[in-house]
Amino acid sequence: MSSSIKSTIKLNNGINIPVIGLGTYLTEDSDIEQSVRSAIEQGYRHIDTASYYKNEKKIGDTIKQLIKEGVVKREELFITTKVGTWQHGYENALKAFEESLEKLQLDYLDCYLIHYPGTYSELPKGESMSSLRSKTWKALEKLYNDGKVRSIGVSNYTESHLHELLSQCTIKPVMNQVEFHPYLFQESLLNYCKSNDIVLEAYGSLAGGNEILTEPVVLEISNQINKTPAQLLLKWAIQNGLIVIPKSIKSERVIENSLLDFEISQENIKKLNLLNKNKRFYWDPNNVN
């Protein structure tokens, strides 16, 4: 399975998404320009952000400048952002989208996701989280039908959240972006998504840093195949059928994270799968009703 910076897969609505993207989770304004610029100059075409990250404006500025310089064309890019936990609801989500679009200084988005199935705001009177989620999705369907976004999906959804959504939506989500690494090998969710033609996209592939990067099994395999632990973990996710969006503000790491044109043997894939301990480093959506 080839995994170069140019590799793409087809989403369930027929559009292509690069398999390797740049994550920008809480990247500071002072670092975001360097991170995005170096990624795009190195050939990245997929950038992932969110209203929650508070860096859409700086990303928009950088992309605009790179387009102006002739480094990249808008239509070559795949830009994703997300509805925040405090932006659930039909009108709220439509407003959130327009705010994000304005900050990113774009005419359309390539993908818009519901960031989380729950909210940290107080629920409106008489509203359940389930009905609020449903209204948020209806807003995304409208944006898709109006041609303002090329694809729509979700993030941090469990199988039960996806089952609920699939039972009522008129447009199926193209992806579910979740925490995924060998310590959190969500095999059941992965199989559920595959059977429903929903792509799983991994965030937190390096599991918050040193703990997994110094895991003996990870070190053993990475030494054996002469790749860095980070490259091994990213390629492991891709060989399990996922898209990856590693974050880095260092140019050399941005480049390293894209050099994934190698194969991990099935034996080593299984060894990494067996490291699972259902350990999360980020949000846990399992207790969101």
Briefly characterize the structure.
This is NADP-dependent oxidoreductase domain-containing protein. The record marks 82 as: Lowers pKa of active site Tyr. With 289 residues, the protein is α/β, with parallel strands linked by helices.
Question: Can you characterise this structure?
Answer:
By secondary structure, this protein is an alpha/beta fold. The chain has a domain at 13-206 and 243-248: TIM Barrel (Alpha-Beta Barrel). It contains 11 helices and 10 strands. It has helices at residues 29-41, 56-68, 90-104, 129-145, 159-166, 187-195, 210-213, 216-225, 229-239, 251-256, 266-273, and strands at residues 8-10, 16-18, 22-23, 46-48, 78-83, 111-114, 152-155, 175-179, 199-203, 243-244. The strands form 2 sheets. The protein has an 8-stranded parallel β-sheet with strand order 3-4-5-6-7-8-9-10. The protein has a two-stranded antiparallel ribbon with strand order 1-2. Helix 1 runs parallel beside helix 2, helix 2 packs across helix 3 and helix 3 crosses helix 4 (129-145). The protein starts with 7 loop residues before the first strand and ends in a 16-residue tail after the last helix. The model has no long low-confidence stretch (mean pLDDT 95).
What string, H for helix and E for strand, traces the elements in order? EEEHEHEHEHEHEHEHHHEHH
Mean pLDDT: 95
Beginning-to-end CA distance, first to last residue: 38 Å
Q: Structural class, from secondary structure content?
A: alpha/beta
Tell me the fraction of residues in β-strands, as a range: 5-15%
Strand order of the largest sheet: 3-4-5-6-7-8-9-10
At CATH level 3, the topology of the domain at 13-206 and 243-248 is TIM Barrel
Q: What is Rg? A: 18 Å
The CATH architecture name of the domain at 13-206 and 243-248 reads Alpha-Beta Barrel
The 3D shape can be described as globular
With helices defined by DSSP (H or I, 4 residues minimum), what is the helix count? 11
Instruction: Estimate the helix proportion, in percent.
Output: 25-40%
Largest sheet: 8 strands, parallel
- Give the oligomer, counting copies of the same chain as homo and different chains as hetero: single chain
**Strand segment count:** 10
Q: Spans with pLDDT under 50 lasting ≥5 residues?
A: none
> At the fourth CATH level, what is the homologous superfamily of the domain at 13-206 and 243-248?
NADP-dependent oxidoreductase domain
Q: What is the top-level CATH class of the domain at 13-206 and 243-248?
A: Alpha Beta
